[in-house]
Amino acid sequence: MTIDRIIKKFNDNNPGVDAGILQLAYDFAAEAHQGQVRKSGEPYIIHPLHVAYLLAEMKADLATVTAGILHDVPEDTTRTLEDLRVNFGPEVANLVRGITKLGKIKYRGLERYRENLKKMFLAMAVDIRVIFIKFCDRLHNMRTLEYLPEEKQQRISRETLEIYAPIAGILGIWRLKWQMEDLCFKYLHPEEFNKLEYKYEVEKKADRNNFFNRVKKELNPQLRDAEIPNEIEVRFKHLYSIYQKMKSKDRKFDEIYDVFALRVIVDDVNDCYKVLGIIHTLWRPKPNRFKDYIAVPKPNGYRSLHTTVFGPEGKAVEFQIRTRQMHDESIYGLAAHWHYKAQRQEGIHKQPSWIKEIIDIQKEFSDTSDFVHKIQLDVFQDRIFVLSPKGDAIELPEGATPIDYAYAIHTKVGNSAVRAIVNEEIVRLDQELKNSDVVEIITEKNKMHPSRDWLKFAKTKKARDAIKQYAKKSTFESFKKYIPGIGNKS
Ligand code: MN
Q1: Ligand 1 center from residue 45 Cα (angstroms)
Q2: Active-site hit among 4, 12, 42, 75
Q3: I want to staple 168 with a disulfide (CB 3.0 to 4.6 A). Which of 173, 229, 264, 453 is the partner?
Q4: What residue ranges define each of the domains in the chain, with the CATH number in brackets?
Q5: Among this protein's residues, is 75 annotated catalytic?
Q6: pLDDT digits (tens, 9 = 90+) for 260-294
Q7: Structure confidence by residue, pLDDT tens digits, 343-391
């Protein structure tokens, strides 16, 4: 790995941006780490360079890639955070400080796990770019794990599988999640890993390549005639997810069908639908397997067209059709999402709403185990999107009800709610909402207080807090008349 490769990668994604600071950061870090070597025997500087390259690949911004090069300087060299601030400014220095803070964890066992999770979430709440750097740092450490003693390999792999990979999944950074999981799989279950890898990479490889070449050969001339510029790539399921599927469904490798898919990447949304038409004309679609995640994206923002057709020899083959931006967002998640937003000059660091929730929860809970429990309840659970009659999307946790929606709109709407209209049908306030339901709240002017019973089905913190607050107040009100001195004279 060289600094030139990193600069080139960064400029590929950000043409015309002056990346001179990357060269300066390299000179600074190379001097600071001078003489240090990693367990592999390589010069230390190779590690931060790899981390910076992974960041540039996921389209991180200039400050983040710079911080990637400098991330181990304060911890492992005589240069301090103050030196970084003077030379590279507060933004880069703050990112490196975030990484350095994450690094020090002194607990063991379950405590260590909880403390780790808490630190990750808090760092995320301050500046999510810190987490991007930490993930790339961990991925490169996993790739070079073979040089560490076995006991450390096991501990680091377990920690990566339990903490890092799930968070990467929440943020939609699938490429990092998969790579981490496969590396953990290799160290935690070496026998199963080797067996599966052999089947996948050796036994079935030739068959698979022949088949995909045939599919491409039939599809390519059609795409050329329609003048649709495109790239086709084969998507493989990663080994750890095959392993999990085999375990949970008790199936053999040959019975896991959706191991492969063909991805067709095109320039714009129009072309996505044109390609779909061509594929369905060439091969008969399998019933019930067509999904339009462009018109109705998944709650995590994922967009693509999916279809399974009976391809050559009548063999089922799955296609995923998407634009380049959809593709980048599907593998680099939030990181790529920001990149495209920044290009359009929109709010660059607008964070998803659950990050704000983390900050609120953190203010409320000082005890670590309560904090983690609450985070898991409120934030880790799956999210759905419902729509207002005007088409605004409101994000809610899975299992949310119209009362959660009402309080998400406004406390007044929540307090005076009596019924809801969901997809043009009048329903009770405790009916569970589903993704992309259209919801409207019926309110009653004279009813200005919530019902305590709503606590039985309200899911969001906002709704529950409002209901509880009123419940407390009304208990106090009803007690007041029995307490001499503060009661209303009635
Ligand atoms: Mn590092």
Answers
A1: 10
A2: 75
A3: 173
A4: 3-192 (1.10.3210.10), 197-342 (3.30.460.10), 382-480 (3.10.20.30)
A5: yes
A6: 789 999 999 999 999 999 999 999 998 888 889 99
A7: 665 544 445 555 555 556 655 655 555 555 555 555 555 667 788 887 6
